[in-house]
Queue: 3 jobs
Job 1
Amino acid sequence: MGSTSMETNKLEMYEFGPCEDAFQIGFLIGQRFSKQIRSRLSNDLILQNQLLPFAQFSNSQPFIHALSETNQSKFPHYWNELKGIAEGSGVPFLNILLLNFRKEILPFIPKTERNPKEDEISADCSSILVVNNSMAVAAHNEDANVALVGHTYLVKVTLSSGTSFTAYTYAGELPSCAFGFNSHGVAFTLNSVPPCEEEIVAGAIGRNFVSRDLLEANSIEDALARIYSSAASVGHSYNLIDTRARRILNVETASRNRISVHEIGETPFFHANMYLHLQVKQAQDENSLSRQTRASSLPKESKNDLLALLGDRNAEKYPIYMTGPLLYTLCTAVIDLDEKTLTIIQGNPKEKQQSYVFRLS
């Protein structure tokens, strides 16, 4: 797949609300983006070849049931939002459920049932963060399986409380497993991290539910508290951004409520898909190691440098900016705390072709 043909369609945005409840949020999103959701379901090889077959095995059902019960109990509103997405888009709820729990389910699928090529696409997202006298920036490549190309959108939702959030969203999933911000001055971007299988707790809280919860945080401290209380199944890396106080935190998490918080300062901080400060047994990921090594050698003195870093394609096998065949950089989000903007760039960020510029609170 050539990069040019995959970058032609501008990201669609849907703004709505105030909403009465979570089901209505999901229903309206599902209804509006039914075409994208249905297309993703039919084109996502991980869903078709791994998740759906696994869900049909009788010995898998207790595991999926436990995962469902735990998350429905902890986050009943977001569970209803998932139901709304399924009903609004007219697709089976099981498919929506599996998409949203893919990171929590995939480690438990027997390796003999996996497609080896699909195993290689777990590494996704690169972030570069800095807060110094000259700039305060969080810049983030949103990388994903090529099946996601053309299957993402933006939503701006106003809740009944008056709070609003804007979120980059994968078709069929809760907003947002990628990045977003709200009217309380809280923003975030996300990076996956690959713990060893022994570090994963089966049937615990799903990462999509945690990040959905962050969209309603009323402060960076509240966002941290929501992460601390999540009891997640699989680890994650959160870049929490206080758009009013010029603060950025990198928060690495693992199962059993293990968390490490790193305050971003003058030294630019690059994060791919590996733990950097939380002591956790993790899978050795050649893709992340390659990006981490390459980023360490590139200049980071200006915002333009950061964009050039995220657009770097120097490494033939594992470049920072990805154009397939398995992984693809869907877009780049640039949060500038001095300009108080979030800019979304589709295409290589070195070219600075802006698709959206949002004012931050």
Job 2
Amino acid sequence: MDNSNSASYQAGQAKGQAQEKGSQLMDKAGNAAQSAKESAQEAGHQVQEKARAAVDAVKDAAGAK
């Protein structure tokens, strides 16, 4: 391989590695976003359950059931 081919090969290798790193970072960002979404959904469900329990407690206290 002459110097020109070697430089082109190395540039291609570097480009491929940069694309792979970018892809990995995007995967990590996507996973983090999914995890955050799931955590928010879980927190929302917990709030709903607590609200239902509070409403039931008020109904019990008022004899409204």
Job 3
Amino acid sequence: MAQRIPNHLVSNSLLPYLSSSPSTSLFRLTTAYTSSSLTNASRPASRSFSTTRPSQTKLRREMIRWLRGKGSELQHHIPGETNYLTHTNKPFPGNPLYRSDPILSEDLRNEIHHQVTVQNKSVRAVSVQYGVDMRRVAAVVRLVELENQMKEQGKSLALPYARAIHEMVPVTHLPEPEEKRKSHETINDLPVHRLTDPQIFYPVSESRQFNRIDAGRVFSAAPAMINKHAKRLEANPDETIRRITQESPANIEKVGKGDEEHQVLLPADARIPHPHMITHERNRLTIGKTEPAEVRQKYRERLEQETQVELQRKERAQQRLEMITQKVQPENSRFEFRFTDVVVSRETTGLTGRGHKAPGRRYGVPSYDRKKGQAKIPSRVEV
């Protein structure tokens, strides 16, 4: 009967069938076979399985020639310049109409945050001052506040990634005091209103002047305005815009019933983000050639007036909220309970039961605060 091989001597399952032999010679054979197998396995393959040569087309040869020549310059970007083929803000040479939008520099972001939070300037004034859209100004303030909170908590920021991005894309820098300020983006784009989607053919008599106010009423399905009132609004358009945007924005005329009730569509002069710029442009074209200093003075006064009106509106809203809120703070407690009387009726909840005038609209709506992929950035900053 053949001698059995001990288990501790077999170190490779790929060994051939072994005949009976002394244990010492078997150990030497096993060790030699294992070491040679590891050596051969660590060597890279010298030949591929396929013997077909890769096809070299003309376009492929030109691409390789370009990558070795002019294309090698784009392997590492130059700090402060875009790493595009055209070295401009056009990333695609075949599409000159597509341009890469710039981003705000760190200095400009910090200055915007300082103007809003420390100097208590309005978002509208900062938007006009630096040529940045009001929505972007609000987003910058929220993000900088979030960064400051992360620094206080000892969390790390992705600063190397931010520096690399700022070196490879167009950047709008903070202008020097004597330097002419360059606009970052258009700040007075007119948003498309849902009421203007349909195409309407509205007959008008030749003796009547049809303006933007009338067009807004037609789109809103509102009755035509009385001629006497319409002429008074047309006589002083600047005062009309001021009254709409500053004095009574909440008292805009409404049409419809129930859930179909909506405000009458305002003219484009009042719906743009910065209506005061229209008045400034009128003054610049009329008296700007002879009295440019007066035009600038009126512009600053108009901005200050809008800022004061906005602050007064916020104070009145806060006072109304405090009047209808009952605060209760138990003794020796760090919590304060606030109670507000609400009215739940058909008028407040609407047909669906989720009207914005009653708390019933929140019932049955899931909270997405802890769901993945949802933005956790604060929506506003109290300054």
